[in-house]
Amino acid sequence: MTHLRLGGVGKAFGPVRAVYGVTLEVAAGELMAVLGPSGCGKTTLLRLIAGFERPDAGTISVGGTELAGPAVFVGPDKRRVGIVFQDYALFPHLSVLANVAFGLSRHSDEERASVTRRTLELVGLQHKEACHPHELSGGERQRVALARALAPGPQLVLLDEPFSSLDASLRGDLRREVELILRDAGATALLVTHDQEEALSVADRVAVMREGEIVQVGAPQEVYGRPANRWAAGFLGEVNILSGVGRGSGVETELGVFDVGAPIAGTAHVAVRPEQLLLRSDADGNAEVVAREFRGHDVLYRLRHEGGRTVLVQLPSLELHEVGARVFVRPAPDAVTSLVD
Amino acid sequence: MGLSPARRGPDGPTVVTVACAVLIAGPLLGLPLSFLVAPGALSRFAGYLPEALTATAVLVAGVGLGTLVLGTALALLVSFCDFPGRSWIEWVLVLPLAMPGYVFTLFCLGLDVPGVRSEMGAVAVFTLVLYPYVYLLARASFLSQSRTLLEAARGLGLSRRAAIARVGLPLARPAILGGMALALMEALADFGTVNLLGVRTFTDAIYRTWFIGFDREAAMQLATLLVSVTLTLLVLERLARGRRRYHHQAARGDTVPPIRLHGVAAAAAVAGPLLLVGAVVLAPLAQLGEWSVESIRHGLLAPEFAAAARNSVMLSAMSAVLVPAVAVGLAYGVRSSGSRVAAGAARTATIGYGLPGSVVAVAVIVPLGWVDHRIGDAAGSVLGLDVGLILTGTVIGLFCAYLVRFLALAWGAVETGLLRIPPQLDEAARGLGADRLDVLARVHVPLMRTGLLTAALLVFTEVMKELPATLLLRPLGGDTLAVAVWQATSESLFETAALPALMIVVVGLLPVALMIRLSGRGGAELEAAQGAGSWAEIEREATPA
After folding, report:
1. How far apart are alpha carbons B377 and B370 in whole angstroms?
2. Which one of A79, A327, B99, B475 is least enclosed by Cβ atoms within 10 Å?
3. Are A148 and A188 in the same domain?
4. Where are the domains of chain B?
């Protein structure tokens, strides 16, 4: 069931088109990530949904109620949308407890106390309730911000780059933790990020955004494995764009035939991820190792193909090929790639 | 070449800095000693105490509440609302800072405003001329608040108004209380206003004990009590902050988008501030102008007017050179010694700021008088000359009082200026063969020029306005403009008082204009300017450590 629905939403700041014709649907209980480079309009999109900006065009509705449209504008305080800000925006003059209870002013005292306690337990910070924000670690602050957003029982939770101000070492654990908390709470959530790994690992679906427009929406494996265009392919990870000729449901390139899952004819370009290629040592091989990047769990090789182009190949780090070695490179079996423009 | 041996004991700059600080702050620290020297002195003036205490309590409560409400309301208006002319009304609201309380009192008395000769009248006068302290600090705090905090409150179901009340105001609380503390210190330090309005506060009691009772010990004891009231205020304000820490994270240049006012609301937002400033600054200026013209036309100017003007300009100009120079010396001592003792000593030397002029005068005169007599005795016995009182009988005593009272103004500017000069510059200059004095003259002073000029301007105008210390310490026949205004007003010669008062206000507008001009530009110069003066205090109060 669709819970959040954006229909043709647009917003310009003077001559700058920040968000343009965005149509997006998020199902109840779903965790959707909006992924794009900085300046792509994703934060504006989030502020439009929260009600801090008024769209110039289109409609926004949550749970079937229209919140913004040509004739409607519901203020941010009436939207029942929880927001976790990039800098957390915890109230420095209030304790953790008072921060979490802040949005519960319409509840009875008793109810407020029990909801606050329950939410603090959900994020595992009941022992810190008397602290002030400056006494907490970065990870704790983030969990308080999340608890504060969840406590009033919002219809939708918005997270603006929630992990960007944390140390890299903390990020992975917290990502998992936040995901679990959101799922425990049964929340519908929209997370905005510029970090591919974050979007792909946390979200049920990912919406890729560029210059104010949504380029592609799909499950993480889909947007990664079958990018909609050349830009999306490059933005989501390393990629080889290979040209060839359509034959049946494959494209014949200088590295071999790549399955694209649908009949194709004429000249075509395919996006091939480095892990969709295999290589083996071969003195008469079709490529030479130019550089090797050892990354622990895997290795990224930069090859020069005999046709002159550079090819990226990623392999498990079980077996290493030396720089300068001749190798034979070919498509991995069962690799399904996608056509790009 | 070996390493130079570790130095034992304090180095030269530290010794000099500490000595300076002791000379400047010593007299103030010596005030409480008067209770040991003459334990019973105050009992001779026992009648003064209860009335001084009640009047002071009424003033503190009334002025505190008045400036708090007026200053915060105006700051809320210009920070969170948008209306035609907001960008300049913001600054017009600062103008009352240029209006000394006793000049506004002269205006009220001259127009015979009903009820002004009372404690409530004094509360009203102080509220109207001192609210800018709260206004400036609260405004700075509101504008520095991160937009996301208010948005977070909106997202949690609060209306705009409720978000400001529950998040914006509490976050600005330290700034608002800091501004209020500054306003109260000014009110407690005032002598002219309360004296002219017949409100018998501590400063008035000190003046009467001194000039009518000729009792120095009792005056010192009263001064001690007044200082403790001031210090209590400061401590209470610090305590009020509690353990909360306020991070003003103005997020990436985001400021809170203001609410656009329309119709009646917009008209009221323009008219209110203009009426206020019109009544506190423009109307008095116009009236003083009219009286001045009359006084010149009808020959009502005091005969000593020309001498008073000359004395004022001379005293102000000399202080404007002397006080910043001492501040540079102290700051330089701290910098080149790098010792914490020297830094602490220099800070102690600035405690005179915020203390009433009458307290400073009383504190300074006793040690100076003692030195005077020693010199007199020595001159008499060795040279057989009668040199008179060369410190307390001349302007030297007055300079000492100004130095104690206004050093903090210059210190702020100089210290911020020096802090911005990286120590590598010193080292580079020393490496090129410059000695310490060379570094000061050829590197630091040129780099601190704006700050020094600001400091000089502030000291100049403050000395021009200063009344109580001047009144108590001026040599015979050495009236200043401020003294002339006070004397003529207390004799109800309003036309006679007008021209000197007008001159004081016009000079007082200079630093306010400077602040407004610099704030338009922003950047380093503003910082340097803010380093000086009340603005310095304002900034420091606004940003808790």
Report:
1. 11
2. B475
3. yes
4. 12-542
CA B384 vs CA B377, B381, B479: distances in Å = 9, 5, 32
**Which tokens belong to B24?**
């400047």
Sheet with strand A57-62: strands edge to edge: A16-27, A2-13, A57-62, A65-68
Please tell me the total count of domains within chain A: 2
A271 with A334, same domain? yes
Can you give the CATH number for the domain in which A294 is found? 2.40.50.140
Residue among A51, A92, A94 minimizing CB distance to B247: A92
Domain B12-542 has CATH 3.40.570.10: no
pLDDT over 60 at B328, yes or no: yes
At residue B5, does pLDDT exceed 60?
A: no
Judge whether residue A173 has pLDDT over 70.
Answer: yes
pLDDT of residue B454: 81
Q: ipTM for the complex?
A: 0.74
Q: Which of A44, A74, A87, A100 should we substitute to test contact with B (largest number of B Cβ atoms within 10 Å)? A: A87
pLDDT of residue A215: 94
- Both A320 and A196 in one domain: the answer is no
Contact B95, B281 (CB under 8 A): yes
Domain limits at A269?
A: 239-340
pLDDT tens digit string along A15-70?
A: 889 999 999 999 999 999 999 998 899 999 999 999 888 999 999 999 999 999 99
A149 in B contact zone (CB under 8 Å): yes
Name the residue of chain A whose CA is nearest to B158's CA. A77
What's the CA gap between B235 and B534, in Å, rounded?
A: 19
Residues A336, A260, single domain; the answer is yes
151-180 in chain A: CB under 8 A from chain B: 152
CB contact under 8 A, B152 and A91: yes
Global pTM exceeds 0.80 = no
Tell me, yes or no, whether A223 and A278 share the same domain: no
